[in-house]
Specification:
Elements: H1 2-7, E1 16-17, E2 20-21, H2 25-38, H3 69-82
Antiparallel strand pairs: 1-2
């Protein structure tokens, strides 16, 4: 992202808090589309689920309780979101 800002490919953010850039989901999607244009690998920056892909259901279970099922679910959701699902 820093490289895109330095090249002027991506517009500089209006609001930077404590030296950190904060992006909205739309700004990240726009950056991914910009990166897609120069990528040598198709689908690397803007992946999508194929129509042939079957719906997957994941279940996290531990009989002990309070053993990070919610945390694992959130991390898995982030993993798939970053891959375009």
């Amino acid at each position: 992202m820093r490289k895109l800002h330095g090249e002027g490919t991506l517009a500089e953010l209006k609001e930077v808090k404590a030296g950190r850039r904060h992006y909205s989901a739309q700004e990240i999607l726009n950056a991914r589309h910009i990166l897609k244009k120069s990528s040598r690998l198709p689908g690397k920056y803007v992946p999508r689920r194929n129509r042939e892909d079957k719906v997957q259901i994941f279940q996290f279970m531990n009989f002990k309780g309070e053993s990070s099922e919610s945390t694992a679910t959130i991390h898995l959701a982030h993993y798939f979101a970053f891959r375009g699902y």
